[in-house]
Amino acid sequence: MWRNLMVAGMGLLLAACGGGIDSYADAVDAQAEIMEEMVSVLEGVTDEKSADAAADEIEALGKRLMEIGALMPELPRPSMEEMEAIAQKQREQGREFQNKAAAQMMKLAEYPSLANAWTRAMSNMR
């Protein structure tokens, strides 16, 4: 049942992200949302079985990162001012994200399938 709910939730997330990317800022925001989701997936890992399920979810999220990354060069280039605003927003959100993510990183060392999925997903970031 939880698996079905997660699959449905992932579908909604992907649909929501894919439909509203009209600018570089939208793409960066969508990537940040996916990264938050990846950390939330890690938070649910408690054993090998949940790690394997989480690895599948992280793989799917990694594919979405790749899709967004491929879309980014096709979007209108942001101005210098827009880039500065995007960077500032990401710096502010990044601190909170880093703290949240750091608390989950030991799970990557503990579960190899999870670490492999995370590494592949992160290689999809642009």
Task: Give a summary of the structure in a few sentences.
With about 130 residues, this protein is mostly helical. It is built from six helices and no strands.
Helix/strand layout:
Elements: H1 2-19, H2 24-43, H3 48-71, H4 80-102, H5 106-110, H6 112-122
Radius of gyration: 15 Å
**Number of helices, where a helix is a run of at least 4 consecutive DSSP H or I residues:** 6
Order of helices and strands: HHHHHH
Strand content: under 5%
Through-space gap between termini: 34 Å
Mean pLDDT: 84
Helix and strand composition category = mainly alpha
Tell me the overall shape.
elongated
Helix content estimate = over 70%
Low-confidence stretches: 1-18
**Number of domains in the coordinates?**
1
Report on the structure:
With 126 residues, the protein is mainly α. It is built from 6 helices and no strands. Helix 2 runs antiparallel to helix 3 (48-71). The radius of gyration is 15 Å and the shape is elongated. The termini are far apart.
Q: What descriptors fit this protein?
A:
80% helix; 126 residues; mainly alpha
